[in-house]
Amino acid sequence: MRIFLLGLAAACLVASCGEKAIEEEPAEPSGPPPLTLVIHGGAGAQAPGRYTAEEEAAYEAKLNEALETGYGVLEAGGSALDAVVATIVVMEDSPLFNAGKGSVFTRDGKNELDASIMDGATRNAGAVAGVTNVKSPIKLAREVMENSEHVMFAREGAEEFAERRGLEMVPPHYFYTERRWKSFEEALEKEKTESETSLPHDHKYGTVGAVALDAQGNLAAGTSTGGMTLKRFGRVGDVPIIGAGTFADNQSCAVSSTGWGEYFIRLTIARDICAQVEYAGKSVEDAAHDVIHNRLENLGGDGGVIALGANGEYAMPFNSAGMFRGVKNANGVQMVAIYGDEADE
């Protein structure tokens, strides 16, 4: 009798487990993944009142231009990589953002640019650091990824590679803007009376980035920056570090970071978000929120990310006062925002 009861209990348990497994089996995709593009123009935007109405309008117009450009690539059947590059080039060419034309100045009064890109389908990646005369660092990062056996090139070597690949080269003064030079001079004055680590957050970060999901279900991520105001000794931040500033994997998500780079390197922010999605089964929103509002804040860092999953789920969390950001997708969502009190839906 005891054996019979144990056998009956075991049979019931197996049946119960089988029913549970059937209930939890994921539904088959109902169609192709929704074309999606998410962008950022850097964290750190202060509370409303920081910019004039005209300045806010200029930022919003450029963010929308970047969205329309990249999303147009996706609509035309282009790859996520193509969309990411096209989107970032728009922001690199604008003096509004700390990347390309609008890059900040180092302690020596120079512009040193970093960028990275990653293909979620192959997990191939490319990055460049400290370039001074390459007009579009994100294009160079893609060249490194697709036309070399390496992941990262730096400084003179990266520039030599750019010339060999036929990329557009510009004189260093191309990156000069009066606005950034004025900020550089103000930072120098502040440095005379305060320590380097006490510089305002605006001097510590500023970046542009994009993540995209194409019609083939492939993800890609890219990031580009002029770095930190008054940086010295060849400092390199998180942007060209794969796993910190940029990460993409079709099995989890695509992420582009913006914030105080040293913290993002130490926490491998971009990879950690995707790891939580892949290994812990978290949603993109939950994983990104945990990393930014728990891990990053607990260490004392600030900034934000844009994250995009293979199903089109996206998140744009930040713990700074604001973050230039935007999204457009096939479900009819299109928005841009600057401050922390604006709806992201």
Number of strands: 12
Task: State the share of residues found in helices, binned by percent.
Answer: 25-40%
Terminal CA distance: 62 Å
- The CATH topology label is Glutamine Phosphoribosylpyrophosphate, subunit 1, domain 1
Q: DSSP helix count?
A: 9
What CATH first level would be assigned? Alpha Beta
Across the major sheet, the strand order is 4-3-2-6-5-1-11-12
Question: Helix-strand pattern, N to C?
Answer: HEHHEEHEHHEEEEHHHEEEE
In the CATH hierarchy, the architecture is: 4-Layer Sandwich
> Considering the protein shown, what is the CATH homologous superfamily?
(Glycosyl)asparaginase
What does this structure look like?
With 345 residues, the chain is α+β, with helices and mostly antiparallel strands. It has a single domain, classed as (Glycosyl)asparaginase (Glutamine Phosphoribosylpyrophosphate, subunit 1, domain 1). It contains nine helices and twelve strands. Strand 5 (207-213) and strand 6 form a beta hairpin. It is globular, with a radius of gyration of 22 Å. Residues 1-28 have low confidence and may be disordered.
